[in-house]
Amino acid sequence: MHSQTSAQHPVQLPEGVRLIENQHGREFLQIDHPAVSARIAMEGAHITHCQPVGQGPLLWMSASEPELPGKTIRGGIPLCWPWFSNTRAGVAHGIARISPWQLTAVSSDAEQVSVRMSLADSLIEQALPGEKWQLDVEFVLGSDLTVTLITRNTGSEAQALSQALHSYLPVSDIDQVMVQGLESCTYLDQLTGHLQIQQGPIRFTAETDRIYFNHSGEVRLIDANKQVISVHREGSDSVVVWNPWIEKSLRLSHFASDDYRHMLCIEAANAGPDARILKPGETHRLSSKITRGAADSSVV
Fold first, then answer.
1. Contact (CB, 8 A) for 74 and 48
2. Which of 112, 128, 165, 298 could form a cystine bridge with 288, CB 3.0-4.6 A?
3. Which helix (H) or strand (E) holds 123?
């Protein structure tokens, strides 16, 4: 990759932050800070890498992902907005992850870097005729990662919103991990369409695609090495848990046949019955904070 300045993003960048292009011409914000290294694609406002100093990566990326301009990216955190999945006509997961974003602010101090990006109002109006939205995303990168989608209804009528921070998290082996924090929660199994209640921690033996409801607490991904990735959510009463397993992996683009073994999505969401109706002038913030740590002695 090589450095590049861009007239589209006339924001002064602090030391250790620069705009670059990959070999295909896709533009990224590259962050090399004493506390963290990270990379964010300008198209899609898609963070593809975040690694605090002295830790493993917080996000999983497919090794076969070419990061081509105009294409979605397999891994990192795709922004699903203003609809989740195929709940509305149009491209799956909405327009945010396939649209060019504008860099509006970057700042840093000794401990972290903060980045703010926005989706142009004119682009939203063109893609969503009759809807009036203002959309920003904030990234705070340091010893952990916080991503916040900020949506404001700028129109004169109420508007429906569903969304997700589609976070791909790294695991050593999906056979040996478990997810804690969702015990006794009701979930929609999107493979069968049935509602069920979670019994104990989640373990993985087959394709998993679930939306858990009425839950706002911490969710913990516990790996076989007793390392923990914790997901703290705000503005979210639903969480998506997804792993494609073997058969679906063969149908996914830029996804090796065994990649399912090394990733798990735990997504802060407003999905299903947690979809929101924003009144004129109302703002909603959806946030996910991803941290690493060691499991306590109670984990078996």
1. no
2. 165
3. helix 121-127
Identify the DSSP state of 84: -
Q: Where are the beta strands (DSSP E) in 53-92?
A: 79-80
CA-based torsion, 105, 108, 111, 113: positive or negative: positive
Give Cβ neighbours of residue 297 (< 8 Å, ≥ 6 apart): none
Quick one: pLDDT at residue 251?
A: 93
220 burial (CB, 10 Å; 0-12 / 13-18 / 19+) is buried
Sign of the CA dihedral with 61 first, then 62, 66, and 69 last: negative
pTM greater than the 0.70 cutoff: yes
Say how far residue 175 (Cα) sits from the centre of its chain.
23
196-215 tens-digit pLDDT: 999 999 999 999 999 999 99
Query: Who's near 180: CB < 8 A, 6+ residues apart?
Result: 201, 219, 220, 222, 299
The confidence score (pLDDT) of residue 13 equals 97
- Per the CB < 8 A criterion, the answer to whether 30 and 84 are in contact is no
CA 112 → CA 38, 192, 206, distances in Å?
Answer: 11, 43, 38
Task: Report pLDDT for 91.
Answer: 83
Q: Is the pLDDT of residue 2 over 50?
A: no
